[in-house]
Amino acid sequence: MSIYREYDIRGIYGKDLTDEIAESIGRAVATFIKRKDWPGSVVVGNDIRSSGPALSKSIIKGLISQGVNVIDVGTVSFGVCHFSGLQLKAAVTIFVTASHLPPEWNGAKISTGEGIPIPPALLKEIIDENSYSKPEYTGSVEKADLKKDYINFMKSKFKFKNKMKIALDCGNGSMSLVAPEVFEAVGFNVTKIFCDVDPTFPNRPSDPAPANLKKLAETVKSGNFDFGVAFDGDGDRGVLVDSKGRILTGNELGVLLARHIFSKEKGKAVITVPRSLSLEKELKALGAEIIITPVGHTFVVSKCKDEGALLGSEESGHTVLPDYFAFDDALLIPLKAAEIIEETGKGLAEHYDTFIVYPYEEIVFSCPDTTKFTVVQNLLEEFRGIYDRITDMDGVRLDFDDGWILIRASNTSPKVRLYVEAITREKLDDLKNTFAKVLQDEIMKVSP
């Protein structure tokens, strides 16, 4: 299994990802910077995983060995780390994290100082070729703590007349370090759920999937809250829960934000290939220009920057609000939602009731990393001879008058996913049953 994924670097610490490999990643980043002749230091931070400090130390060792200066911001959230890189005018920001994966995993998200992801393949090439730069001196290391600056930034951008009551589920992850303070600083009445840091994630998995948010949904539903919010392990994905305990999908969040943003200003929206029918219809009705991109925060963030978009939305919950940051800091999601609630005078549940929700399912199939892309490619070639409305940007998507399906290989795990949406439940079941069988047969045929 390669640790160099489409979006970031991920592996099991001590097995796929060691301190020695982390040092080589640091050396590769330094070499990349020198080839680009980018000015500035490298900001390095890590999430709350137990292996984070050791991996950060090794990456820093590799960076300074190549003559690059480092600013170590320590154990922080995704947003604080990237805010630090932006404020300190860093050449590159490295955040050591495995996001929503189990505790034994770790990795790194590597971006420009502005927060635009750098593809890991560019670093892997340097490592594989052993083509590191030849340093003339050793770089320096200094420490910095910009959490107060980050909190003050949020206070300057979000001002509320009313004291909202929210439930906050940090999942014992990195947002525990900053989210409660931000919400209290902007005047919210905050009830904390799992907001003590614990790298074993004892109360729920670090993935804020609906099945993992029962405690939050129950709390919000029974406690007269304006809304609830949950974050993933590092803080680049956020999930909203309305006062009735209903969990907004990433697409429904996209609709909420799009209505607010494009009612004020016309522009571009970046959405991913498995886009919902409702989100696409809403954006068209609002006069937004739709830019389609593959799944993954790397593509959404980069395309927002390239296109000057006003909104980037991914169905998994990654959201880019370029008016604030180029990167996908999930703390902006509940703050923006609160702004919409106060401005419209409608609660989140009232907004939810206006969403058009079509039947939708995501079915996950186990498939070895060695064959998952072959499976998708084979189906793409087969479908080209059968269907007219076919998209091959990220997997294979088929559009029909009353629904669509997408089959794509996961970039982060040995899985192939089938996404299905239709205007009726009957049509969804028909599409699901048909293409689930086709996909499973192809996996069985190709896999060892």
Overview of the molecule:
The chain is an alpha/beta fold. It folds into 3 domains: 9-145, 3-Layer(aba) Sandwich (Alpha-D-Glucose-1,6-Bisphosphate, Chain A, domain 3), CATH 3.40.120; 149-353, Alpha-D-Glucose-1,6-Bisphosphate, subunit A, domain 3 (Alpha-D-Glucose-1,6-Bisphosphate, Chain A, domain 3, 3-Layer(aba) Sandwich), CATH 3.40.120.10; 360-446, 2-Layer Sandwich (TATA-Binding Protein), CATH 3.30.310.50. 37% of the residues lie in helices and 21% in strands. The strands form 4 sheets. It has a 6-stranded mixed beta sheet, sandwiched between helices. Strands 15-19-18-17-16 form a 5-stranded antiparallel beta sheet, covered by helices on one side. It is globular, with a radius of gyration of 22 Å. The mean pLDDT is 95.
